[in-house]
């Protein structure tokens, strides 16, 4: 018997019936009944107005917060049963974060900022600088390696943050309003970089309120009042 | 581990001005402690230089010099004085010493040869306990003992310089010397003596021998070595023990009281400075705790980022703890340096020899580190308790 295998890529993210309740009073159910699957190589955008629960979803996706119920598997690992220390390691290894406000350390060079993301996941010291250089070349910043972040433009800073997110070779790149602090030219450059990463096989999830940003994704998911709408 | 250190060092180095201000309290505290203890040690060192151990435990008893004038019977030291003094509590060793009148007798190593190459050396006599009492050290051979003394054996011990002048440096072949025409066997050569430097230039024979050969009537002096701190007591008791009938006819040489001098140095001022140092250290520790806490609040974004990059709570705690230990250690190092400079400076001005305990010099920076450790515990715990979401939302 031959099965015609429809070769669906393995899921990176599997959320089934996930909910998050913030204890009151008044008790707030920020997220409810979320079923979400993100497969390898997918470029997904999650769009929604402020207060819709998209930040909560981002925190849950990024293992920064624990669901109140449901199932969340990351790369097939059931994250619900993990202890805090193991979650930290999983977070460091599998997820690359890109924040709206960049979160670069002002007193360290660009290169050191990028290398920082390998400190907690056990990459040998010798390897870190070499890999950080490669990542910075990839985002087109090889000429800025020894600069301090404060001397860079907003677009350049966000590219440093993206290099930092990529360098540990995560399974999922999780971006929270990545263009929120940028002008349209720089925003466009960042979105082009995301397109390029997507073509290279990276799995991306971009959370935004900006339709212009979400349009670039392969698949869009809307979040309203804590539930996903397709 | 190295990563934690690197990250902590980078964190500390990021704000140099604040770092210096933060260490200030620790610097002052450690400097005050090191300076106070250092100056105390230096001053105490000056005292013990003046009164070293040998001098501080030496008591000498001699007859009063105006003895025998105006018809009074001359006071003579009794031969059994060492026995009497030896019974006193606090006397470690006691012995008699006498200079002998040898007339024209010269001392030579070979009788009558080479037309009388004799040397005019001092000849002295002592009891067997003398050598112990003056802390004599032998270069070679042995001292004479009570047996030699009783039998009146013809043996001698040579002082260091006396041996050199006679050309004798070994005693294993039992060399003989001549005093006048009498032959004596050399059984030992001294290397050093703590009191009575004249013994270095002398030929020393047992009292028994001296009584027979030179008609010695009584000891010239009694050397007493006391236990540390007992010199004053023994000086008071010795005359009564030797001569209960008329103790005032004896002259006693004892070291001056030390207590008065030492008290002057270890004054209340010292305690005050130590107290000030301790208060400064406390304030320094609170300063470190305060600034570290402030820095935790300022760096909430950084903490969140590190957590997002895979740092566990213990990584965050370790980083802030190590940072505050570094600050404390730095304060301790600077404070020690200032304290040492202070000690050396005051010593220089007062023409003293600066004395500083190694333990103090190397231990004080560690004291700073310990203060940093204690001060950093709460902020580090606080930092590790920050939720990554809160941290990332803030900045």
UniProtKB/TrEMBL annotation, chain A:
Keywords: ATP-binding, Nucleotide-binding, Transport. SMART domains: AAA. Residues 13-230 form the ABC transporter domain. GO terms for molecular function: ATP binding; ATP hydrolysis activity; transmembrane transporter activity. CDD domains: ABC_MJ0796_LolCDE_FtsE. InterPro entries: AAA+_ATPase, ABC_transporter-like_ATP-bd, ABC_transporter-like_CS, ABC_transpr_LolD-like, MacB-like_ATP-bd, P-loop_NTPase. SUPFAM superfamilies: P-loop containing nucleoside triphosphate hydrolases. GO terms for cellular component: membrane protein complex; plasma membrane. PANTHER family: ABC TRANSPORTER ABCH.1, IMPORT ATP-BINDING PROTEIN. This is ABC transporter ATP-binding protein. It comes from Kribbella albertanoniae.
């Amino acid at each position: 018997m031959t099965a015609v295998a429809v070769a669906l890529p393995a899921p990176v993210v599997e959320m089934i019936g996930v909910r998050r309740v913030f204890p009151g009073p008044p008790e707030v159910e920020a997220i409810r009944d979320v079923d979400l699957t993100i497969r390898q190589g997918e470029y997904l955008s999650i769009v929604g107005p402020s207060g819709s629960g998209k930040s909560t979803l981002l925190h849950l996706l990024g293992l920064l917060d624990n669901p109140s119920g449901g199932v969340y598997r990351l790369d097939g690992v059931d994250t619900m049963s993990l202890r805090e220390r193991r979650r930290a390691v999983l977070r460091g290894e599998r997820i690359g974060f890109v924040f709206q406000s960049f979160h670069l350390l002002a007193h360290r060079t660009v290169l050191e900022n990028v290398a920082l993301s390998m400190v907690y996941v056990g990459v040998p010291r010798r390897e870190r600088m070499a890999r950080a250089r490669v990542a910075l070349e990839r985002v087109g910043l090889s000429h800025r390696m020894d600069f301090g972040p404060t001397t860079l433009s907003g677009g350049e800073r966000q590219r440093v943050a993206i290099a930092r997110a990529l360098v540990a070779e995560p399974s999922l790149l999780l971006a929270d309003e990545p263009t929120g602090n940028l002008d349209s030219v720089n925003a466009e450059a960042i979105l082009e970089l995301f397109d390029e990463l997507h073509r290279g096989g990276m799995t991306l999830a971009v959370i935004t309120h900006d339709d212009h940003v979400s349009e670039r994704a392969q698949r869009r998911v809307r979040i309203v009042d804590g539930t996903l709408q397709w | 581990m190295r990563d934690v250190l690197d990250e902590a060092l980078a964190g500390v180095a990021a704000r140099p001005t604040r770092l210096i201000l933060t260490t200030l309290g620790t610097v002052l505290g450690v400097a005050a402690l090191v300076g106070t203890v250092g100056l105390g040690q230096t001053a105490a060192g000056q005292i013990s230089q003046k009164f070293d151990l040998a001098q501080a435990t030496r008591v000498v008893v001699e007859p009063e010099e105006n003895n025998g004038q105006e018809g009074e019977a001359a006071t003579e030291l009794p031969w059994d004085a060492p026995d009497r003094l030896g019974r006193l509590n606090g006397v470690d060793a006691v012995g008699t010493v006498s200079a002998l009148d040898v007339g024209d007798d010269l001392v030579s190593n070979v009788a009558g040869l080479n037309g009388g190459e004799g040397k005019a050396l001092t000849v002295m006599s002592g009891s067997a306990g003398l050598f112990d009492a003056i802390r004599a050290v032998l270069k070679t051979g042995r001292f004479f003992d009570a047996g030699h003394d009783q039998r009146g054996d013809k043996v001698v011990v040579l002082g260091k310089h006396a041996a050199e002048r006679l050309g004798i440096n070994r005693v294993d072949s039992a060399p003989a010397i001549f005093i006048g025409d009498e032959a004596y066997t050399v059984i030992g050569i001294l290397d050093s003596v703590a009191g009575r430097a004249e013994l270095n230039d002398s030929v020393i024979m047992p009292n028994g021998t001296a009584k027979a050969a030179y008609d010695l009537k009584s000891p010239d002096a009694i050397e007493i070595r006391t236990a540390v701190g007992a010199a004053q007591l023994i000086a008071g008791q010795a005359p009564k023990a030797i001569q209960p009938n008329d103790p005032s006819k004896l002259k006693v040489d004892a070291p001056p009281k030390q207590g008065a001098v030492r008290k002057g140095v270890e004054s209340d001022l010292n305690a005050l400075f130590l107290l000030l140092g301790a208060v400064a250290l406390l304030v320094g520790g609170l300063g470190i705790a305060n600034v570290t806490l402030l820095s935790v609040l300022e760096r909430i974004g950084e903490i969140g980022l590190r957590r997002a990059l895979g740092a566990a709570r213990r990584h965050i705690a370790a980083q802030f703890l190590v940072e505050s230990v570094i600050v404390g250690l730095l304060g301790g190092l600077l404070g020690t340096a200032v304290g040492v400079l202070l000690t050396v400076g005051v010593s220089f001005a007062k023409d003293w020899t600066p004395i500083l305990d190694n333990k103090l010099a190397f231990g004080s920076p560690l004291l700073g580190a310990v203060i940093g450790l204690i001060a950093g515990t709460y902020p580090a715990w606080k930092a590790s308790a920050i939720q990554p979401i809160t941290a990332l939302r803030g900045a």
